[in-house]
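[Meeting: bench + compute handoff]

Bench side (C.D.) handed over the final construct sequence. Compute side (W.E.) agreed to return the predicted structure before the next meeting so the bench team could plan truncations. Sequence as handed over:
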Amino acid sequence: MASTVPSGPSDYKSVLATVDQGGRRKWVEARIVWGRWRRLRYLLAIPLIAFYCAIPFVRIGGNPAFQIDLAARKLWIAGVAFWPQDLSYFVILVLLGIVGTLLTVAWLGRVFCGWFCPHNVFLEMLFRPVEHLLLGGPGSPQKTAWWRAALMWAVFGLIAGGLANAGTAIFIGEGAFRHHLLLDWAAHPYATVFWAVLFGIILFNFGWFREQTCTIVCPYGRFQTAMLDPHTLAVVYDSKRGEPRGHIQRTGDQRPATSDQRPAASDQRPAASGPLGDCIDCGLCVRVCPTGIDIRNGNQLECLHCTACIDACDTIMDKVGRPRGLVRFASEEQLAGRKRQVLRPRNILYALVIIVLSSLLAWRLMGRTDVLVAALTQTAVPVREADPDGRDCVRAVLPLSLVNRTGEALQAGITLPGLDARVVLPQPVITLAPGQRTTTMPIIYIPAGRFSGRHLDVEVEVRDPAGRLLGRATVGVRTP
């Protein structure tokens, strides 16, 4: 009888499981097997999908909850605008993401790829279930019905359209959509082109390209795999318990021969060859894998730690009356019978770096002012002359950029504390529109005695009429 285990390249360490000996792609038709891990993934995937689709349309205090406004050069997070001058916050967040990834991988393996990655969440929790619902699983006769395939692609198109809506709204805001569903094509032609391109990419990726995004395109998974160590928690096959494989019935151990458990001709052994392991070589763990690998070959680059093989193997173990856990979450040290060390030097180092970066980010956010003050290029040449009070001063024009980070209009004035300087504004009070940038060019008179050289750093403060500090910056002033 022919083997039901999908055939593949024997050199699994050098050749992708989804590529045949001729280098051509082998289409992965992963089966869906329900189990406790898949149910947990759905419980996590539902709020993740809802968050992605809803967050571009949510507003906090009248401002977007999340939006990348490229035209205005603003990033909105939780209703707060971040400008290009706030790059330091972004740098700290990126460093936190990198170090957090290192800690997560060292501790829990590729949990991001299997549980949180948008590609895997959308593919395994949306597109593949729709395909199975309309066309059936692998080998189903329903796949030959053209109308079922057409219906499947129509549903794929609706899902891709919704995802493209959310992706487009992240950049242009929810105001460009009618009832959050239809993009106003006439008013936003460039956004329409972006939506169409994004729609095509989503439909192509989840309808055809699929696992190749993880195994060929994405460098993130390769990076994570390289960070695994013998103490890392991963999806593993217990070879000590499972080997040697086979379907030979042992005395007192009657294994049912279901369609998923028919023995492969090459694996049949005589009873005299010795006792067999718990693995009955049904191949179900391979058929449910979204990247087509055989988990029994050990840790592999393509493994996403999605736990589909765990649910499949547990189902078979229940049928043959064997304990669950032949495929499970464990480390190499645990498989070898040794204790897994969680608090390792690298994990402690990563945790300490995360604490330092988090503290730095909190300190920066606590010191964040309502108005971002930045000095612009000084084009006017400073001159030495008397101020309106007759003092010997250096007069300079100080161009300033004032960014109102709040969602309400502010009234502001400018002072130079500690210098006994005089500030003359074009208007007595500067009005700062909410979330907008304003340029002002105050004329300042600094006593000449304050200059000990050709340059003086002065502190500029922006305060409201009540004297509350709104923002500050240090600006350099030259002498004539």
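W.E. noted at the follow-up: The two ends are 96 Å apart (CA to CA). C.D. will use this when planning the next construct.
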